Structures are given as structure tokens and as C-alpha cells.
Amino acid sequence: MEQQYLVEGANLVIASVLLLATGRYLNTKIDLLSRLNIPMAVTGGLLCSSLLTILYLYFNIRVDFDLELRNLLLLTFFSTIGLSAKLSVMASGGRTLVLLLCFAIVLLIFQDIAGIGIALAFDVNPAYGLFAGSISFAGGHGTSIAWGTAAEEAGLAGAGTLGIACATFGLVAGGLIGGPMGGYMIKKHGLASQHTVPQHYESIAEAADEDPEYPLENAFSTLLVLALCVGLGHNLNDWLIIQGVALPQFLTAMLIGIVITNIIDYCKFNLHTHSINRSGEISLHLFLAMSLMSVQLWTLANSIGLLLLVLIVQMMIIVLLAVYVVFRFVGKDYDAAIIASGFMGLGLGATPVAMANMQALTARYGPSTKAFIVVPMIGAFFIDLSNAVVINLFSSLPMMGDGF
Fold first, then answer.
1. What residue intervals traverse the membrane (predicted)?
2. Residue 197 pLDDT more than 60?
3. What is the pTM of this model?
């Protein structure tokens, strides 16, 4: 008889923190993990999901997770991204932003061509190839669920399940290859950050500059601004839906953050950058830990061979594009290496994976302001919109039948 357990609320947060601590410990003790720049959330989360798979397969014990808190963490993280996006700084990434958007569109097209090609090779409806392409990899779980529902209603049975499976594999792969490939480019070309100190030392120095007499005021003001971003972003999202415009809720939270930070900057006030950055990092790592520890690896067992083939092909595409195109055309410098690493996480997994890849590298080699501006903007603003256009174009091809 199957035993079921649900982890939720405070227990979910406690479990996530313990996994992060475990991942950090393993990364410091296992030289391979350290050298490959694997994010600690990936290490801890995959260890947990692997152990839970063993419990399910051999002891008939199933552990599920209520991930409602995870969604709040995602909104908090993107709020901190918005609060860091001053228009003067965003303008500095203009050319790089345009180039990266072009490369992202090229990636979407290649992903769908590869997915359709694999489907045709196995004599499967080519429409399934889109779920082994940009729907799941660049789109992630949310896009897979949204398009999967529409496809299944149109008669494409199991499309959503295929998309979620590919998105899960992509999420893991994006966190595993982005850091190592970024480190490879940095070492091969002898690159270094333009800043003279590593990011974690810079953060310590920045923290020391804050007024020590009012540390609680700094924390409270940060909480207030983040609450405004999440709350107003939610209201803006509801209003846009009424107007017939559907946007991800994290996008509206980030937009509110951008508006707030630029109003504050115009009025010559200062946000507590250190507190905001730390809030974003904590939210990101907790979000990833919750996402990865809840992956039900046993559900992928029946189609593991085909999924691995799809994953290998998609990994080859994005590595070649990131290393030989993105890295070279956006500057072939340290910023370009960090951007390429984030691009791999973005194209295979999701924006939080891209951010984790870049944070793992910058914590070791030094900060990259440009990378943390352009990659989140591509991930939050442009790639979903571009993906929707590309998916619609491919789904309208004659070989797809009536589309979905």
C-alpha cells in the first residue's frame, strides 16, 4: 500500500533551507562540483529528488509538495531584478540586448526544427516535436502546461505530459552545463571581471558602508518596497487580464519594480541595494531548491531513452550557439562569458536557472553588471513573446494538420 506525505508551508521552507545547506556543503567538499560551478540549489535539489525517487520505487513512499510559497519567491526575485533596473543602466546594454534577442529567436527556431525532426524520425505526429522543442525548453513548465492544455483539447493526447517531462530534463540540464561552460570560456580566454574585487567581497564592503545605526530601517524599507512590487504587480496583472492582455505575474511585478526604482532615483533617494540583492539571492535559491526537490523523476522512467535523445540534441544546439555565436558576438570578454552561461540556463531551463548559473560564476570570478541586466530582460520580457510567435508559425505549417 502506498504511503503519501505532503510537505507544505513552514515545513517546505525548512526543507528547502536544509537542502541549500547540504548543497553548499557538498559543493565545498567535492572538488568536481566546485570546479564545475554547479549552483548549490541544483546540488541539493537533485539529491533530494533522487532520494525521494528511491523511496517511491523501493519502499512505496510518495512525498508531494505544496508549492504555493514557491510562486511568491519567484515574484520576490523578479521584483528585486526590477528594482535593480535603472534606465540609465539598462540603456548601457542596448546593443548587447538586441543581439541577445536575435540569438534567442534563432535558438527558438532551431529548437523547434530539432524537435520536429526527431518526431518525424520516429514516425510521430510532428506537432509533438514542438513539445520537444521551444515549448518545453525555452518555455519551461508554465509554457508546457499552457500549450499542452490547448494541444490536448485539439486531440494531441499526452502533449502536456511530454512537454513537462522535457521541461524537467531541461531545467536540470540548464543548471548543470551553464556554470561549467561559462567557467571553461573564462579560463580558456584568460578573462577577468572589470571590477577589482570578487562580488562577495564587494557586497561585504557595501554592507559596511550602510549606516550601522539603522539596520532594521534598511530591512523594513526593503520589505516595504518588495511588498509594493508584489502587491501592485498582482493588481496590474488582474487589470491587464480584464483588458484582454495576459502577462506572467512575475513580469508585472518586475515592471512595478522598474517604475519604483526609477522614480526613487529621479527623486534623488536611495534604495538599500545590498538588502535588495540579498533578498533576491535568497528568493532565487529557495525557488530553485523547491523546484528541483519536487521533480518526480520516476514519472520519466518509461520514456527515458527518447527524452535523453531529445535532451542531448537540444544541449548540443544551445552549447554550440552560446559558445561559438553568443560569446563571440556580444564581446568575447568576461561579460560575454557570463551572458553565454546565462543564455544556456535560459534556453534549456528558465530565467532563475540562468541567474543561478551567473551567480555561481560571479561569486567565484567577480561581478558582471551587464549580464545581470540583459539576461533577465530577455528572459522576462522578450523570450516568451518571441516564443509564442515562433510556436504559432510552426503550428500553422501544413504538416501540423489543423494546429492547436
1. 6-26, 38-59, 71-89, 96-122, 128-147, 154-177, 240-261, 282-300, 306-327, 334-351, 371-394
2. no
3. 0.72
Side chain identity, residue 353 = V
Binning pLDDT at 50, 70 and 90, where does residue 87 land?
Answer: confident
Burial class (CB in 10 A: 0-12, 13-18, 19+), 189: middle
Measure the CA–CA gap between 3 and 123, rounded to whole angstroms: 39
Q: pLDDT tens for residues 255-281?
A: 899 899 999 988 988 888 888 988 988
Q: Are strands 3-7 and 61-65 parallel, antiparallel or unpaired?
A: parallel
DSSP 14-81: HHHHHHHHHHHHHHHH-HHHHHTT--HHHHHHHHHHHHHHHHHHHH-EEEEE--HHHHHHHHHHHHHH
Quickly tell me which residue has 488582474 as its cell: 238
pLDDT of the residue at 186: 96
What's the grid cell of residue 99?
A: 543581439
3-class secondary structure, 5: strand
